Amino acid sequence: xxxxxxxxxSDAPTAPARVEAHPAHLGWRLVALVYDALPIIPLWxxxxxxxxxxxxxxxxxxxxxxxxxxxxxxxxxxxIAGLYAVLSWRRGGQTMGMRxxxxxxxxxxxxxxxPMGRLWLRYALASLGLAAFGVGLWWCLLDRQxxxxxxLAAGTLLVRRAPAPSPSR
Length: 169
Prior knowledge:
Number of strands: 3
Order of helices and strands: EHHEHHHE
Strand content: 5-15%
Largest sheet: 3 strands, antiparallel
Helix content: 40-55%
Oligomer: single chain
Distance between the termini: 32 Å
Structural class: mainly alpha
Strand order of the largest sheet: 1-3-2
């Protein structure tokens, strides 16, 4: 016995519509940075707590007497924030702080997810730009496509996606 042909008006899934994206301006970047503090601060507390526990285990209750401790802790905090950002960008182009605002880091040439090496370069240069009084971000105000200096150097682009069309019912 043959099966009836499916009805064209059935609820069969269709290919998603193409979602447009536009370069994200400085305001969206700043809002996402504030939101990204929510997962980064607990990560920093874990790193600092681990360092304190290791110091206590080594009989150094006051870690400030170790001249190498401060720079090493800063490097660890920078590294854990980098892991969070780069792994998030590589996995889906977004950190948690970027999701509510529909921001995404993409390759500037083809709009796909950028390779890991360029994402690490982006993070390192963004860190330097922030340390230099945010000069890397302020560049967004001068660039027609709202690109930051770290995006220009790394070949990435931060875009804001248009809302996905709601399914018709």
